[in-house]
Amino acid sequence: MTAIIGNISLIFAALISFYQFLNIRNINKIRFLNPDRAISLQFFFVLLSFFSLMFAYIVSDFSILNVYQNSHSAKPLLYKITGVWGNHEGSMLLWVLVLVFFGFLISKFDRRLDMPYKTLTLSFQSLITFIFLLFILLTSNPFILISPVPLNGQDLNPLLQDPGLAFHPPNLYIGYVGLSIIFSFTIARFYKGSFDSAWAKLIKPWVLLSWSFLTLGISLGSWWAYYELGWGGFWFWDPVENASLMPWLCATALLHSTLVLEKRNALKKWTVFLAFLSFSFSLIGTFLVRSGIITSVHAFASDPTRGVFILMICAFFIFSSFILLTKKASSIKEEKLITPISKEGSIVFNNLLMVALLLTIFTGTVYPIFLEIFTGEQISVGPPYFNLTTTLIMGPAILVMSFAPMLNWKKDDFFGLLSRLKTMLFLSLLVAFIFFYINSQGPIVAVVGIFLASWLFFGTIINFFERTNYLKKFKNLNKSFLGMTIAHLGVAIFIAGVTGSTLWKVEKIKTLKVGEKVLLNNYSLNFDKIKKIRGKNYIGHEAEFNIYKKNKFIKTLKPQKRFYPVQEFPTTEAAIYSRGFSDIYIAMSEPIDNSWLFRFHFSPLTPWIWIGSIMAFIGGILSFSNRMFKGK
Amino acid sequence: MKKFLILIIIIFFSQNIFADENLEKKAREINKKIRCVVCQSQSIDDSDSILARDLRKLIKQKLEEGQSEKEITNYLVERYGEFILLKPKFNPNTYILWLTPIIIILFGIFLIKGIFRKN
Amino acid sequence: MKYITLIIVTAFIFICLFFGLNKKDKTLNSPLLNKPIPEINLVSLKNEKLNETDFKKEILLVNFFASWCVPCIVEHDFLFELKKQKPIKIYGINYKDDIENLEIWLEKLGNPYSKIGIDKTGITGINWGVNGIPESFLIDKNGIIKHKINGVINEKQIKILLTKIESLEK
To answer: What is the ipTM score, two decimals?
Structure first.
């Protein structure tokens, strides 16, 4: 019954979306299916389908193959629910849900759009929806039944049974898939209206919304990896991680380019190109993750026919948009030239580096595939390549990012800036020196990292104080400006966090018996107890560590090693003591005789990685809230 | 005389301790560059798999025998292929990989020239 | 002009991705193919030696296995099947195992090996580029590795092996 509802809802949604695309001129052949109603119905049906699947998971309806393959009656309720999107078919359904949700949001809440333009936009959004619904119905239907009905399921990968990972996909998809509406807005604009400052104002809130959630989604995933995967790392340049980073870089470039279009009516073709490119990278990311072309921790179970289907979907959207741009490029009148020393000049500089990084990451990710095709050689492109290229490319970007907001539009005088720059330079060098003094055994690169973070931090703060006339104008503060400030500060804090975490980490791997202890930095970690534990669907061991600093008790940490019998899968539940400026991290491994192997990390500034990311998210949402309700 | 002897002994042992620590550091550095081929996305420094542990032991042993990083990585590449190196070598196979960032930036600068007005 | 470049480059990327999809062989290539066998200096189960002198006389199969390896149980029957179809000499290399468990395992499942080398530490495995067990190597009369099988030798693999052995015998 549930499966029938789920299936039929999807079919209805597909039919309506197809109709909405065909009805692109809103001839109103079916009177009650005007664009607003049509998109609302699409949303309703996909939501109904999604809730049906969720219901099946909650009641453990194992007659549905998808539930059987990914759930188990003993699983905690939260993970039964979030397990809906912990597999290919279910997450694909979530993908489409976000797709129609954005259409619905436009329809219901964006009062600035005129009817013809809105109709066009929603028609294109419906086309995207239709194609993906077709993909689901033909290759990835979550409602396939099995018979006879098994007594219980195969359980969900224990790594996914976790709060961080539960919420990572929805947030990520709001970002990732939100870029689709920008895509639709852009295509529609070729047929109704021009790429002017007014258009930039229209799409800006949606770019902000997508960008913010993409930021949040990526940091949730990274935070999850940090505490769940057990080796204290937060980013490995895994192809699937890159698949989310690439649209993010593009969206960041797009965000700033839109700003230039809005304020100066320039960079038109470039903004259009970035709008297309962003969603293209969302699609390519989807392809990389789901096609099986790359094996990875994340990659869903692969099926080459699915892979070909997704590749064709990517090709369809990417080529049609590029060809459309090529054909109509000449009709887009670019008027203004840009002065290098100006706000828009610095944004051009930023865009250049963002896109360069984006393409570099793309190259690094797909290079092993390409090389193997042409020469048969197998190589790895891992963190050393990506870390090197990223720091070299982002370094200059951060340098400019710091004082770019201080620059005027149109044209500015660099020498006028110099006095402020001198202050920033002095403060940043001071901070870098202090950190170096505290932590002198680290590599020199770390000091550069701290310097850049401080440089960005002070530049942003100084600009904030000047623009608000030293907080006198705080009451009339423009929310966008505040949002930008918080987001940029977040980036600075993030950079400091990454620097500290990567370069100043103290790590020890030791085998300990109960009663023994290890010294980490100035802390004594005493291994006092070990006990057996049992959860709803797992068994395992828990170690108790009491942490002392100079004989003063600080905290108890209890890392666990779990074993999930159904999937025969062990997990490491690391124990982390986060103290604002650093983390103490303990992960447990296998027992050896009557000793246990542990990994201990003292990670300076690591919490700043997440604090910085959250700040960026908050900044984005603040700016979004400013834009959304402004009149036409 | 006694004090002198004690001093010598202390220096001798501390050399060993420092040497040990340096060795440990060097080993970790190398480990971070070697891929765990039985894991999905980890270096042998991060992984706790059996093969990763054995390789870490082996690398430490080889360092104690005085082998250089190059000799150790060559040893591994001979047996597991270049796939085991997380940092791709710079050879004809990877020229495009390493040069692409530079080419992209140069191309970008070329594109930008068209839109900048002379100050 | 630049748009045309864009489209051509994108097309190129898509074609490559398409071909990348169809490459279904996901196993790690061995750099040891067509090279002489690596170091091997082991003591066998019967306290004899298993080293280079045991090679270079005839076509052989070297099979890395262990009693704790579940797929090896499945493979075991296939090894007998292979020998039935072609009486080839198989050396077993017992990887990181316990001798008592090994003997029990062999008693239960049978012994298709002419000699079994004991690789307690796994160093021989590393020397042969083994990344998981079971793994097997086909070696010709001159001690050159001619084929490597990652994973279980099953029916499909047996067919491939037989063809390769035949071409080596010529």
So the answer is: 0.85
